[in-house]
Specification:
RNaseH-like_sf; alpha+beta; SH3 type barrels; elongated
């Protein structure tokens, strides 16, 4: 038996057995993976064995051993920010070019028979269209898109939504293809990719609560009033009201005092003035949006791992689970990188594919 002699300062000589590589995993299993070991972390495991055994680079070996533990990878709570830096998109050049669409479900059906709200927001002006509906079907989505937006304003260039069947279907695809609109879908279980309309849903939901007075079945009566109030208020990101950016004029409130004088301008003069004003306002709004996007509070202290094709990863279990269920499952193999934070992966054993976000991925380490 080979020993390592240690002489700590001010203490007696310590004689530790030098462990060959063939026995190291057995020692770690006994001191860590056994029920008496508790499956604890690197520092606690290292402190348990360092006074009884020795081998070179013991701490690094313990660290690699724990990284490759499947039980820990599946069940441990990760007490740090989820990985993946914030991916910003440049603001569109014009109003009603890029729209985001989403359904919101009310907790109760109204007296009018409505239980859903279809909200559509403009990426540049933040202007909102919203409509209470009895169902969340593809027909409802296509009708509102065509009748309330395209016919009244113009054909849009990009439509962003989640992957629900009410948006990802032949009817909506036929409509967007007909008008030359490109349809894109958010990453499953990652609502931040469709964040602007999701944020409005949370906003108007809070406002609806304040007007119900206990009568939950009349929520749809206040919807259009809340949308008007939202569109006429200054947006924190752009610095302008959504109505002002969308239509190049201020919304006159029914509570505002009316002017007793009327000024008339030549049509051509007014048109030139409106064009100049719209250009200046939209430039200022785009600049304000870009400035807000430069506030990297989200990215501070956040890792940004990059995965490559054939890398193995664990994927977070996102639907409901109990406290004792696994938090990650897999392993999955990366088969395609769709963007900086968006990947297509395939389960190694069950061979099904799914799209996922870096937030929900964790590297798989082989032992």
């Amino acid at each position: 038996m080979l020993y390592k002699l240690l002489l700590p300062a001010g203490s007696i000589k310590i004689k530790l057995p030098w462990i060959p590589s063939s026995l190291r995993q057995e020692i770690l299993f006994a001191y860590r993976d056994h029920p008496l070991g508790g499956h604890f972390g690197v520092k606690r495991t290292y402190c348990k064995i360092k006074d009884h055994f020795y081998w070179p680079k013991m701490y690094n070996y313990v660290e690699q051993y724990i990284q490759s533990c499947r039980q820990c990878a599946r069940f441990n709570t990760k007490r740090r920010k989820r990985p993946g830096l914030l991916q910003t998109q440049s603001p569109p050049e014009g109003v009603f070019e890029v729209m985001q669409m989403d359904f919101w479900q009310a907790p109760i059906r109204s007296l009018s028979g409505n239980q859903y709200v279809l909200a559509v927001t403009d990426r540049l002006s933040k202007y909102v269209f919203a409509k209470a509906l009895p169902s969340e079907s593809a027909k409802d989505a296509a009708e509102m898109l065509y009748e309330d937006i395209i016919l009244n304003h113009e054909a849009i260039k990009y439509l962003q939504s989640d992957c629900g069947t009410h948006f990802k279907n032949e009817l909506v695809n036929a409509l967007t293809t007909l008008i030359g609109c490109k349809q894109s879908f958010s990453v499953p279980y990652h609502p931040m990719s469709n964040g602007q309309v999701k944020r409005f849903n949370a906003t108007f939901c809070d406002q609806l609560k304040k007007h119900n007075d206990g009568n939950l079945n009349d929520w749809d009566e206040y919807l259009q009033s809340i949308v008007l109030a939202y569109n006429s208020g200054i947006h924190a990101t752009t610095g302008y009201t959504p109505y002002e950016l969308a239509f190049t004029q201020k919304l006159i409130s029914p509570f505002s005092p009316q002017s007793t004088t009327i000024s008339l301008h030549k049509l051509h003069d007014y048109w030139q003035k409106a064009i100049r004003l719209k250009k200046l306002v939209l430039q200022a709004a785009r600049s304000n949006i870009k400035h807000q996007q430069m506030l990297y509070r989200y990215d501070q202290g956040r890792a940004h791992p990059m995965y490559h094709v054939d890398d193995l990863v664990w994927i977070k279990v996102l639907p409901s689970r109990s406290k004792l269920d696994e938090r990650y499952h897999g392993p999955f193999r990366v088969i395609q990188k769709l963007s900086e934070v968006h990947y297509l992966v395939e389960h190694m054993e069950e061979h099904y594919q799914r799209e996922t976000h870096t937030n929900d991925m964790s590297p798989f380490y082989k032992r």
